[in-house]
Design brief:
The protein has four helices and four strands. It has helices at 22-35, 49-57, 79-93, 110-120; strands at 3-9, 43-47, 63-67, 96-99. Strands 3-2-1-4 form a four-stranded parallel sheet, sandwiched between helices.
Length: 127
């Protein structure tokens, strides 16, 4: 059984629209995750070579580059289709995944508190 915690990164630095501005805040979220004592190892699916370089410069090195372009779908009209593309690829690579947004900080050991429920394959009782 192949399991993984996954995250993703797409987008460009652009402040012309409120949705596009979100990319600026992710760098701080990534920094906080790297400093979090409860962070679990994760794989990051990345859109864009520049985003990959930025992640690597922040110490995130377990990355999968999905495309050289910074997004697969329009960032304003279809931004979450990018996330669905990540889930699709991750489910081809793994049997089970836990997707974590960058602004999600674990506050206790995830594996100790919920790891057993992952093995049961019945997450609905634990969410």
């Amino acid at each position: 059984m192949k399991r993984a915690f996954i995250r993703s990164l797409w987008g460009v630095y652009d402040d012309s629209h409120r949705v596009l501005k979100r990319r600026y805040g992710m760098d701080e979220d990534i920094r906080l995750i790297k400093e979090n004592q409860f962070s679990e190892p994760f794989i990051t699916y990345v859109f864009g070579e520049d985003n990959l370089k930025k992640l690597n410069s922040q110490g995130v090195d377990n990355c999968v580059l999905l495309t050289k372009e910074p997004f697969a779908f329009d960032l304003v009209e279809n931004q979450y289709r990018n996330k669905l593309q990540v889930w699709k690829q991750a489910m081809e690579d793994f049997d089970e995944i836990v997707f974590l947004d960058w602004d999600l900080d674990l506050i206790k050991d995830f594996l100790l508190t919920t790891g057993k429920s992952l093995k049961k394959k019945n997450l609905s009782k634990h969410v």
